[in-house]
Amino acid sequence: MTTRVGVITFPGSLDDRDAQRAIRVAGGEPVALWHGSHDLDGVDALVLPGGFSYGDYLRAGAIAALAPIMTEVKDAAAKGMPILGICNGFQMLVEAHLLPGGLIRNAHQQFIRRDQRLRVENNDTAWTSEFTSGQEIVIPLKNADGGYVASESELDRLEGEGLVAFRYVGVNPNGSLRDIAGITNDRGNVVGLMPHPEHAVEEGFGPDTAAAMRSGVDGLPFFTSAIAAVVGAAA
C-alpha cells in the first residue's frame, strides 16, 4: 500500500511543490489538490503548505480558511485523517478553528529566515511519532506572521493536556507566547507549526550540521510518521 498524501495549492502558495517532494522522499505518493475543489481525491493524509495564500489579506490564512476545499478538510479532520499545516497552513488551521489560538505579526515587525532549533514536546501525534519526546531538531523557519498567541487559560490548557507539539529552543524568533512553535489537536491527527520540515528532508538541501553543510534531514520524520500512522490504521 502506497500512502497518498494530498497537498493543497492556494493562490499564493509557495511551498506546495516542496511538500510534494518531501512526501515522495518519505516514500509516499503526493497528490496535488486545488483550493477551489471539493474533491480530496481519496487521499490518506493532507498537507496545507506554506506561502502567502490570497496575499495574506485580512489576516494570514483568513481567506484560505474559507476556501471551498476547507469544508472537506474539516470533515477529514473530524474523521481522524492526519493533517499537517506548515507556516501559512498553520495559520489556515487556526483561522478554520481546527487548532486553537492565532498567529500574529512577528514581535520585531520583520520577516525572519533562519535555521531554527526546536524541541519535540509531544511525540504522540500522527506527525511526530518517529521523534522522541524532548528531542531537539533543526529545521528552517521563514515567516512574518509567526507569533503564536492565545488566552492565558487556553495556554494553560495546551500545556496541561500536552498539546504543545514543538517549542522554540535557544531563541524565540517571533515572540510566540511560551515559545510555542507548533501545536496539536486533542486527537493528535491535526498538527500545525511555523517552521518548515519540508525543507529538511534531503541531504544537500537542508540545514547545516556538524557532519556536513546542508546535511540536516530533521524534517523527514514528520512525513514518515504520517505514512506510518496511515499504514498502522489500515492494518
TrEMBL record:
Part of the FGAM synthase complex composed of 1 PurL, 1 PurQ and 2 PurS subunits. Part of the phosphoribosylformylglycinamidine synthase complex involved in the purines biosynthetic pathway. Catalyzes the ATP-dependent conversion of formylglycinamide ribonucleotide (FGAR) and glutamine to yield formylglycinamidine ribonucleotide (FGAM) and glutamate. The FGAM synthase complex is composed of three subunits. PurQ produces an ammonia molecule by converting glutamine to glutamate. PurL transfers the ammonia molecule to FGAR to form FGAM in an ATP-dependent manner. The gene is purQ. The keyword Hydrolase applies. Pathway: Purine metabolism; IMP biosynthesis via de novo pathway; 5-amino-1-(5-phospho-D-ribosyl)imidazole from N(2)-formyl-N(1)-(5-phospho-D-ribosyl)glycinamide: step 1/2. PANTHER family: PHOSPHORIBOSYLFORMYLGLYCINAMIDINE SYNTHASE SUBUNIT PURQ (PTHR47552:SF1). InterPro entries: Class_I_gatase-like, PRibForGlyAmidine_synth_PurQ. NCBIfam families: FGAM_synth_I (TIGR01737), PRK03619.1 (NF002957). One of its GO terms (molecular function) is ATP binding. It comes from the Bacteria. Keywords: ATP-binding, Cytoplasm, Glutamine amidotransferase, Hydrolase, Ligase, Nucleotide-binding, Purine biosynthesis. This is Phosphoribosylformylglycinamidine synthase subunit PurQ.
